[in-house]
Design a protein that fits this description.
The protein is α/β, with parallel strands linked by helices and 293 residues long. It is built from nine helices and 16 strands.
Amino acid sequence: MIRILTTLTLGVLSATSQAEPVRDTFTLWQLPQQSPTQMMSYVIRTVHDRIIVIDGGNDAEAPYLKGFLGALGNHVTLWIISHPHVDHISALNRILEKPGNLRIDAIAAALPDPDWVKESCPTEINVVGHMEQLKAGAKANNIPLRELKLGETFAIDGIQSKVIGVCNPEFHGNGINNSSLVWRMWDEHKSVLFTGDMGAQASEKVLNGPYRDTLKSDYVQMAHHGQAGAVEAFYVAVAPKYCLWPTPDWLWDNNNGGGKGSGPWVTLEVRAWIDKLNVQRHYIMKDCLQRVD
């Protein structure tokens, strides 16, 4: 079934991209999972066809993602990594092993210090390996690996971006998620807030920090796949019209095999928070390829 969806979506993508009128805003795709586990993968096309990739997902997502980018011209202007967990970084690491015709101009991230990971997050020591693999892959392919700084702004073809959250070494137990990159992207027509897997502590830090007034956005990527991520007050401050959920079906319904609500996750609670915000539409990964124009 996954192979069929891949063929169909890429075929539709190729056909529509040739016939589309001139665009006045960027297009964003939320890519579907290619394995049962959660992951996060977004592709953005600017008005002049420059491509930005966000995360990419697990190893299993690499072939689909590579094909998707091939249909868009095989040239990525910027690849942003929100944090180095396997379900966010591994597709890129796999692609860097054999990029083929794919060209990547630059990779950007705010990676945690490896020594801090070893000391403060010993159960997540594999993250150090993921980061080392990323650095080695970037070097082998002569791709600059750029460190994003808190408060930094940058622009690509009419899309403005501002970094409002980076590494937070003061947070331990959930340290890697709480060190997710948080940034806002916008043009004259729409704005999107990306949160990676930020946890409650990081979201409260942003709420109490100097960039609280920059949170309000048309679209928000739901933190940590929509559960056990940002606090409710964070989403209230964002006041989104639309929500992007990088969330598989089992997580959407908190279903560990015993039916809706049978699992340990808090997705249903987060969904109840969002219901109070009168969101106009939800873009959910479980519903396959999602496109925002």
